[in-house]
Amino acid sequence: MPTEQDFIALVSKFFKEHPRIRLGPGDDAAVITEISTQEFVISVDAMVEDVHFHRNWLEIEDLGYRALAAALSDIAAMGAIPLTFLVNLGIPADFSLANVEELYNGFKTLGDEFCISPSGGNFYRSPKISIGVTVIGEVRRDMEVRRCCAQAGDVIAITGDVGRVAAAIHLLKDPFLSQMVNHKVKADVVSKFRRPKPRINEMQSILRNTSEVHAAIDISDGLASDILKIAQLSGLEAVLYEEKIPVHPSVNFIAEKLHKPVWQLVASSGEEFELLVVLPKEELQKLRSANINLTEVGEFRPTFKPTVKIRRSIGEEVEFTTGFDHFVNPLDL
Amino acid sequence: MPTEQDFIALVSKFFKEHPRIRLGPGDDAAVITEISTQEFVISVDAMVEDVHFHRNWLEIEDLGYRALAAALSDIAAMGAIPLTFLVNLGIPADFSLANVEELYNGFKTLGDEFCISPSGGNFYRSPKISIGVTVIGEVRRDMEVRRCCAQAGDVIAITGDVGRVAAAIHLLKDPFLSQMVNHKVKADVVSKFRRPKPRINEMQSILRNTSEVHAAIDISDGLASDILKIAQLSGLEAVLYEEKIPVHPSVNFIAEKLHKPVWQLVASSGEEFELLVVLPKEELQKLRSANINLTEVGEFRPTFKPTVKIRRSIGEEVEFTTGFDHFVNPLDL
After folding, report:
1. CA-to-CA separations, A329 to A42, A150, A323, in angstroms, rounded
2. Is any Cβ of chain A less than 8 angstroms from the Cβ of B96?
3. Is B331's pLDDT higher than 80?
4. Which residue of A has its CA nearest to B329?
5. Which of A103, B127, B181, B206 fits a 20 to 30 Å CA distance from A72?
6. Cβ contact (<8 Å) for A28 and B35?
7. Strand order of the sheet with strand B307-311?
8. A156 touches chain B (CB under 8 A)
9. DSSP bridge pairs for A31
10. Distance (Å, rounded) from C-alpha A327 to C-alpha B14?
């Protein structure tokens, strides 16, 4: 059986020289050079077998990709760019050195897009695969984008589309449903579950073109729950327009097979890692003129009780709070 | 059952204002102000039920204390001082809000000693308690102490004493052994297992009094394995003197009951979190004159094959490589 040192030796080769990382893996800690005009932005995330995924749902390489994507998504929402990451890896006894290499290849595939590599980590035996990722990023001093500070009248805009992750989990869980849909529909939704894109570059483009992003968050729990966090911190009510929420045609197709309204599927779709960006309407128009692809999905209004509503296509407004909570509903516990 | 938001709300109150932490818990990431003369030092560690401990071995408060101590110990070895930490917490279904508060009280007890508090985290459901800690510390640029760079003739010095952790695990595992020792012996060894001291302040005192620490490491796998890492990176052979290794009388007592040579118990004693410091002999004398409490336990010699030997009291030298590997020998997997 490989020892901890074997794993450390294997993954050390994934580290690449970086002008800011003075000391990478192989010592007690990683060392990063500071620059006085900047701020470090640090976030941790975890992806655990049978809590966040089942092993037969993903290739091992996808696991690394997805765990890193989740952590990067948090710093994308802050307006930061990543510098490096550290890994806290629980490895089951049936995992070989080659399996760990596959997992790190997943880190590498995504990390290469942002010129980052792992500068440290920790390994331990674990009955289940457990991937903790700490991402360190950077933002110009005072320029970080927070969750608070939406203003009444601001619009809510979103990158990409929502709903495919919940649709993928339905497909992966339910062989009968899976038989009802063709290969293309499956590929459309499962691809986003396996390889979500952290919106680092999109947020950087936004911030280059406007200095008036009042709030931002990435969708990790679900559209409704995550907008609610901004609403609560800002003391406002959010209204989303059902017909404007960008939904992939394959999600519509699966919702139909499930006999569920699409918006319910969308509401419960966590780990989408799209960004929700809150800004004045005229700033959104400016971004669109700069060819930045954002969809306006709602607005903030004054309120006595912060909440999130959805304005149905038929005109009525209903409360919109069904999120996905791994905490209350882990997959298998 | 409490939701993730309940846990987040509970632990947010443990964050204390800090001049360098611009944004603590409650957003997507923590934000730390940079200073151009400094470097960030970052390390991750994990403490997992039935891999690193059994639940009946410790109070819940000890768990928090010990997990933070382990992570702080890594940055102590780099010569850094801590700024803040982030927690990646896997919470079993039978854990209440009050239990999580106890765990955070453990973080607080130790964190208060160094004026640090948790500036972020992540929670997930988990079948076992799983505590990932990311510590962020700081050191003056180019002043970090590495594992490499021991020189032939350097002496090896150690803080505190070694062996109590292995002795404690023997006691905790073996009720018959436990019956053979009195309360004081138990308290002596189990206290170090429950509340190990990260040697942050000791290392700072050392570095204020000498600029010639050539290498340092904290004892996490065991005296022999950890010295071996320095030996390998420095291309040298380490020799430890059996009679000089500082061992608590209660460890001698337990070794006798176990019919084991004390040095074997010491060799396999991981997670001691004492520091091994490598420096010229005259520098060690300088530190002693400054009343810094370090014990000289060995030296580095030239070699063709990096290794660690122990010079027995009877004069012979034997290879000394029995470490504790949670990887190969997790407690319960």
Report:
1. 27, 30, 11
2. no
3. no
4. A125
5. B127
6. no
7. B215-218, B275-279, B155-158, B295-302, B236-241, B307-311, B317-319
8. no
9. A23, B41
10. 21
- Number of helices (H) and strands (E) in chain B: give both, helices first: 11, 13
**CB-based contact B134:B88 (threshold 8 Å):** yes
| Spatial distance between the Cα atoms of A110 and B194, rounded to a whole number of angstroms | 40
The CA distance from B86 to A41, in Å, is 12
Q: Count Cβ atoms below 10 Å from residue A315 Cβ, excluding itself.
A: 6
Cβ–Cβ < 8 Å for B276, B219: yes
**Pairwise CA distance, residues A296 & A314, whole Å:** 19
Residue A326, pLDDT above cutoff 70: no
Q: What is the pLDDT of residues B280-291, one digit of tens each?
A: 999 999 999 999
Q: Does B7 touch chain A (CB under 8 A)?
A: yes
CA B227: distance to chain centroid?
A: 14
Closest CA relative to residue B112, chosen from B53, B55, B72 = B72
Spatial separation of the C-alpha atoms in residues A168 and A187, rounded to whole Å = 9
Which A residues 275-314 touch B at CB under 8 Å?
A: none
Q: Which residues pair with B301 in a beta bridge?
A: B237
ipTM summary value: 0.89
Using one digit for the tens of pLDDT, what is the confidence trace for B139-170? 998 888 888 899 999 999 999 999 999 999 99
Give the distance between the most distant pair of CA atoms in chain A: 63
Tens of pLDDT along A109-154? Answer: 999 999 999 999 899 989 899 999 999 999 998 888 888 899 999 9
Stronger pLDDT, B19 or B181, i.e. the higher one: B181
Whether the CA torsion B230, B231, B236, B240 is positive or negative: it is positive
Kindly report the nearest CA distance between residue B326 and chain A, in angstroms: 7
Mutation target vs A (from B32, B39, B44, B119; most A CBs, 10 A cutoff): B44
- Nearest C-alpha neighbor of B133 from the set B101, B200, B88: B88
**Nearest residue in A to B91, CA atom:** A327
Q: Which domains does chain A have, with CATH numbers?
A: 4-140 (3.30.1330.10), 155-319 (3.90.650.10)
Q: How many whole angstroms separate alpha carbon A307 and alpha carbon A235?
A: 9
Q: Does A124 touch chain B (CB under 8 A)?
A: yes
Residue B146 near residue B152, CB atoms below 8 Å? no
